[in-house]
Amino acid sequence: MSHKLFKMSFASVYPHYVTKAEKKDRTKAQLDELITWLTGYDDAGLAEALEDQRDFEAFFAQAPAMNPNRRLITGVVCGIRVEEIEDPLMQEIRYLDKLVDELARGKKFENILR
To answer: Whose CA is closest to 10, among 45, 44, 60?
Structure first.
């Protein structure tokens, strides 16, 4: 069963991530650094992912190098513990959500990058 979020374009959600970060005096550059840490996309790769409107499924499937330390991300997103999510793609999406939440909450940047 495919969740509707999997087919949502990453580019349609990205501006919400930027807004959430900037509302808390964080920058788009910091957000992009988190995404790079998690996925291995460089600036050009991230720009391409946004430009071609790839969905979350493709965004994560085409990620150059998922960070092995992402498994250290724990906590609750949308009422669910990220470390207990069984669907691998949903877990990747929630890892990203958790990083964005931590950035917006003002957690020290070096602590976010586990």
So the answer is: 60
pLDDT digits (tens, 9 = 90+) for 93-109: 999 999 999 999 988 87
The number of angstroms, rounded, from the C-alpha of 26 to the middle of its chain's C-alpha atoms is 15
Quick check: 22 and 106 in contact, CB under 8 A?
A: no
The pLDDT of 32-59, averaged and rounded, is 96
Q: What is the pTM of this model?
A: 0.91
CA–CA separation, 104 and 17 (whole Å):
9
Spatial separation of the C-alpha atoms in residues 91 and 94, rounded to whole Å: 5
The three-state (H, E, C) secondary structure of 89-107, written as one string: HHHHHHHHHHHHHHHHCCC
Residues 70/91, Cβ–Cβ less than 8 Å: no
Higher pLDDT, 110 or 66: 66
